[in-house]
Write a structure and sequence with these properties.
The chain is mostly helical and 171 residues long. It has 8 helices and no strands. The longest helix is centred in the last third of the chain and has 26 residues, at 145-170. The protein is globular. It starts with 8 loop residues before the first helix and ends with a helix.
């Protein structure tokens, strides 16, 4: 039973990015941003596909690596299932969450729809509804005023921590 889907070039780039993120997961290193960056450098040179990684895929993978802890924390907070790291759709969700966080050019609804299309082509019949539920909950969370406050509070704490650590260095 073949799943045929016609993807746009941006959807293909998202899928290629998810493939690289998933490859890192399968190697047991998907939670390490440095390993993901190393794998990206490797995939820019050597890829299993007939064509090099599209620039948009590279941008996505680098963005996921840069925001991995934040992305994983959002997914974990809304997925609430054991063994989440073993679910193939997590790579697609990481790509989608990065886009919702960092890509203002695309509506979050479109991002979710694209993720569902990709998951539908690579995973089980129940995965699209799971991905939709998790990503929609994240979308609503990100759109809430509480998220804006939480983000700025986290930035203030981070800036405070960095200031304290730099003052420790001067001693």
């Amino acid at each position: 039973m073949s799943k045929q889907h016609r993807f746009t070039s941006r959807t293909k780039a998202r899928k290629r990015a998810a493939d690289v993120v998933y490859e890192a997961d399968q190697r047991g290193m998907g939670s390490n941003p440095d390993v993901l960056r190393d794998l990206l450098r490797e995939r820019r040179v050597i890829t299993a596909a007939q064509t090099p990684l599209p620039e948009f895929s590279i941008q996505i993978i680098a963005g996921v690596a840069d925001n991995l802890r934040r992305i994983d924390s959002l997914i974990s907070a809304h997925a609430r299932v054991p063994g989440l790291d073993r679910i193939a759709a997590v790579a697609v969700m990481r790509v989608a969450v990065w886009e919702m966080l960092e890509n203002d050019e695309v509506s979050p609804i479109i991002v979710i729809d694209e993720a569902i299309s990709i998951v539908r082509s690579i995973s089980t019949d129940t995965s699209p509804s799971f991905v939709n539920a998790v990503l929609d909950a994240i979308r609503k969370d990100l759109a809430s005023p509480a998220w804006s406050r939480r983000s700025s509070e986290e930035e203030e704490v981070r800036a405070s921590d960095e200031a304290e650590s730099s003052s420790d260095v001067e001693l």
